[in-house]
Every structure is written in structure tokens, then in C-alpha cells.
Amino acid sequence: MPDRPDGSVGAETIERAGEAIREGRLVVYPTDTVYGLGANALDPETIEQVFEAKGRSRDRPLSLGVPDVETALEYADPTDREERFMRAFLPGPVTVVVERREPVPDALTAGRDRVGLRIPDHDVSLAFYRAADRPVTATSANRSGEGSARTVAEIDRSVREAAVVLDAGETPGTESTVVDPSLADPVIREGAVADDVREWLRD
Question: What is the pTM assigned to this prediction?
Fold first, then answer.
């Protein structure tokens, strides 16, 4: 059941989730797309917990979630054009892949030099990121190969039981559009607002 009848989540619950991240635990949380699985994105040991919970291959990178573009710039080094794109679409249902900075570990990016950034347009997500006070993994809260979850009830029990759960009711259900502006074909995965993304990239 959602934390509150209106689908909101109380401040104390969000603070407990932030504390869980700081203590090296996992958190299931809502976003503007689907439910996500969060861990300290700078700690390889807790990143490993995410891979284990999802049954995900370690050669598939995870995205990094932060509450705003200014915070993202502490962990990523986008070009001017990439930063303009970030400011145009974030917060929003878009994952932007840019050059990472040194604090971001290889475990998160599967050794790649670029990292996917997520700033969901969702009050609970953003409050949770602020409460965590560090970047959080932004990957869907599902077992690898299974569909993403719009509600907590749709999340595999093994994932739910491994984590603190922030239940804000149903999410929109459409995955984020993943964009790497450095590529000749920059849209890696089409999802929400894909047409708007392509139009911006053409200009």
C-alpha cells in the first residue's frame, strides 16, 4: 500500500530511506517512469548488491541519480552541448550519457568512461536523493530480463525483500529515453518524450 492515500510519501519515511543508502542498503523508490532500485552509486560493494538483487550482468552499466543538474556536474563532465541538453530535459524521463568524473567507480559504469545521469521529475525521487546526500543508482527495480514495475506489487519479491521500499502508488510505466549526444545516432533507447528529444537533437 502507498505510504499515504494520495500516493505521497512522508518526510520521515524518505529520511529513513536516505539513511538506508548511507548505511549501504538498497531502496526501492518511485520515479517519473517506473520503480527504481537505489544504492550508494559511489560504493562498489553496494553497487554489487544491486547487480545481485537484479541478477544483472556486471558488464551492463547502471545509471546515476541525483536531485539536480548542479549536483550532476560534480560527478560528470558534459560538453557545452550536452549540458544544454541536460538543462532542457532534466528533471524528466530521460537518461543522459556523458563523460564521468573520477568519483564515479568502474563498478557503476562497467569500466566505461561515460555514465548515464537520471534526474526524475518526481517529488519523492528528488526528496529521496537529497535525503541520501550522495548519488544513488537509477536502475529499474526488476529482475534482469523481466518487465519493469509500475507498482510495488509488480516488483519481484526477492527484490522487494532486499530493500527498503518507498511506495508512492502507480508510476507512469514508460521507460526513460536514453541519449548519448556524442553518438552519430544519439538515441540509444526510445522511451518517454523521445520525439521531443529527437527534435532538440536535430536543431
Answer: 0.94
Sheet containing 26-29: give its strands across.
163-165, 26-29, 36-38, 136-140, 63-65, 114-118, 94-99, 177-179, 187-189
E strand or H helix that includes residue 138: strand 136-140
d(CA 79, CA 202) in angstroms, rounded, equals 17
Hey, is 76 helix, strand or coil? strand
Query: pLDDT tens per residue, the chain (203 residues)?
Result: 566 655 678 999 999 999 999 999 999 999 999 999 999 999 999 999 999 999 999 999 999 999 999 999 999 999 999 999 999 999 999 999 999 999 999 999 999 999 999 999 999 999 999 999 999 999 999 999 999 999 999 999 999 988 899 999 999 999 999 999 999 999 999 999 999 999 999 98
Alpha-carbon span 64 to 117, nearest angstrom: 5
Say if strands 26-29 and 94-99 run parallel, antiparallel, or are unpaired: unpaired
- What's the chain's Rg over C-alpha atoms? 16
38, 44, 46, 47 alpha-carbon torsion, rounded to 10°? 40
Q: What residues does each domain of the chain span?
A: 11-173
CATH superfamily of 11-173: DHBP synthase (3.90.870.10)
Residue 118 C-alpha from the chain's centroid:
5
